[in-house]
Design a protein that fits this description.
The chain is mainly alpha-helical and 116 residues long. The chain has one domain: Recoverin, domain 1. The protein contains 6 helices and 2 strands; from the N terminus they run H-H-E-H-H-H-E-H. The chain has a two-stranded antiparallel sheet. The longest helix has 20 residues.
Length: 116
């Protein structure tokens, strides 16, 4: 029997689609190290919500796990940079950072080719 979809997953899907997942965390959702910088509240929330979407607990998101979230599902191929059919937390972070940079450029009215 499938677990019910947690409400926090909706927030993660929106955050991923809008590039709001913090790009600074250096650990996987299940890992912590004393050498890493302290996580922000946003990073902790993003990791928790990633785990909620990871229905089978394997540390990565499959197409089936994100299928109920159209924005996240639409971005799946772009986020899956190693083309293994899954999106890791690191891939989510990289995708979010790229998306934020593109949005910032668009808001500033500059295209990547405009920068010297």
């Amino acid at each position: 029997m499938r677990r019910p979809i947690p409400m926090g997953s909706l927030a993660l899907a929106a955050a991923l689609a809008c590039g709001q997942v913090p790009a600074r965390a250096q650990t996987q959702p299940s890992e912590t190290t004393s050498a890493a910088a302290p996580l922000t509240k946003g990073e902790i929330k993003a990791q928790r919500e990633f785990k909620m979407l990871d229905f089978n607990g394997d540390g990565r998101l499959s197409r089936q796990e994100v299928a109920l979230f159209p924005r996240l599902a639409a971005a799946f191929d772009e986020a899956d940079t190693d083309r293994d059919g899954y999106v890791s937390y690191e891939e989510v972070r990289a995708f979010a950072a790229k998306y934020r940079a593109e949005r910032a450029q668009a808001r500033a009215g500059t295209a990547p080719a405009d920068n010297p």
